[in-house]
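Explain the record.
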Amino acid sequence: MATILEGRRQTQPRSSPSGRETSLWSSGFGMKLEAITPFLGKYRPFVGRCCQTCTPKSWESLFHRSITDLGFCSVILVKEENTRFRGWLVRRLCYFLWSLEQHIPPCQDAPQKIMESTGVQNLLSGRVPGGAGEGQSPDLVKKEVQRILGHIQASPRPFLVRLFSWALLRFLNCLFLNVQLHKGQMKMVQKAAQAGSPLVLLSTHKTLLDGILLPFMLLSQGLGVLRVAWDSRACSPALRVLLRKLGGLFLPPEANLSLDSSEGLLARAVVQAVIEQLLVSGQPLLIFLEEPPESPGPRLSALGQAWLGFVVQAVQVGIVPDALLVPVAVTYDLVPDALCDIYHASAPLGLWTGALTVLRSLWSHWGCSRRICSGVHLAQPFSLQEYIVSARSCWGGRQTLEQLLQPIVLGQCTAVPDTEKEQEWTPITGPLMALKEEDQLLVRRLSCHVLSASVGSAAVMSTAIMATLLLFKHQKLLGEFSWLTEEILLRGFDVGFSGQLRSLLKHSLSLLRAHVALLRIRQGDLLVVPRPGPGLTQLARLSAELLPVFLSEAVGACAVRGLLAGRVPPQGPWELQGILLLSQNELYRQILLLMHLLPQDLLLLKPCQSSYCYCQEVLDRLIQCGLLVAEETPGSRSAYDTGRQRLSRKLLWKPSGDFTDSDSDDFEEAEGRYFRVCFKKLPLEGGGREVMPEPRDNYAP
């Protein structure tokens, strides 16, 4: 795996062999300055719009064309202008003065309001199961409620929050080069907060730093203290005490007990009362819907779904008329090694362990110019009440995965109907099991919908593009980096960088310095070689960030590969693949079977998107990239001849919310359409021939 960087050096190489590679890093690449144009000539795409099918009213509100041109800002950039004071002393104490000026609303009477809530009073009076009247006195139940309440939360300490914000600001400036935030996205969230409904942020999860960076970001933008739902299994008791005083929430272990357990009923009732009080008071809430990286099990977090279930139940019973959900994504150039190691540890993170981790991060970045870039991406807020009404209206005709595939396995059906699969692909915890079956289904679909929106709004960082180019042996980084950036933007995804191409390459390779090696092979040429072992694993993990961008092409290529493998024997010539014709009907069936085979949290399909629409999207992508070319069989009607078609009965597309009818008519209509796989031959190093798809010139819409 080697990649050549072409360019002329401006300085002479050092004569010491031991400092050969170090000189290449320190003196720069010395290439001619070339400006990268990753914005299609004019603008970056504005990502993060909410679903127009599920929430059409929210899609129209909180958005204006002007907010797309507001640009970006760095959250950790605090200067004299960010305070009320001026002078040379203010410039040296601006971090401290900024932390003192942050508005932190008091909430001293929150525990008393929770004790006076309807749910807790029903427990104390014995009117519901699990409370007083089942062999327990009201005083004992009250003490148990207070104990559970102390485990869940504590009143935030304003002095501690300000002190922690000041220390965190200094830490982030030492660790990060910038933390970008789109002003237009932040303006949408601020307008949503002024509307009166509580905000619930549903975020992806990359590292432990996410739960600290997001509250700091909202506090700096004047939205108050963000209450973060932490995982109690990942924190020691001492650290949980600190996080509670900073606004953290922890689910009590009794909440995961069985439905017939009195302790479980009591704990879930107290958690529900806490969530209701937070929503009524208007405090923003942060829930992580994604499991940490490399964690065993599904990608969608069961704990995050449990917290979201409490929010959904509070809206359904009318405690608050509505809540606004905000999909959030946090991206990093590279997660610091010290912060990444604490997630892989088997023991919970302790208070002193966290402090040592921070010191290790500061020591590794002390006096180092290779600082990391990060970005916080906020999607358009949408109404939870509107989503609930819209989701329940399109539940008819849904079938389980067993009901879908059993007729095909038995040979009773040749076409997969256009019905979304329903399968238990995430573990259900005790809080979620306490809900009704239709509410459980609502929470799971809502979680998948929001996680898909969060991943779609996340920007692709420069290190992910560089890791992909290195792993797949691209020879010329200068041109391939710009080409891959354009391909990402053409698919509606954003990138988290801009600037000159030489600077971007130098920044990316300097961050990946521990995983790659730079060698000079001849005058003016540099060889970039990935280091074997853990370096390849880290590059593969970074390149996985591009999977959502090219997921449709990957599914379509697997479908085409499966069809061709069934027609051409393994010993046969692969050149015959360019002659074979693939019908659209066969492609649809193969894509549908792949959809049912692959995990749902890998595809991240929105529940409102029909299977037929996804198949058509995959097919369009294959045609755009030039892998498939439309062909007409002899005697068949032209695919462009629509004069005899009855558009009222047989449309080439279906509404994305129509789940009632099957796709039998669409499969019959697609029977006469055929495609040919487009190939070209490239010579291999060993003298053989390799069959490769022939790319198209552009991706014109």
Remarks:
- The chain is about 45% helix and 10% strand.
- Residues 6-42, 418-426, 636-667, 681-701 have pLDDT under 50 and may be disordered.
- The first strand starts at residue 3 and ends at 6.
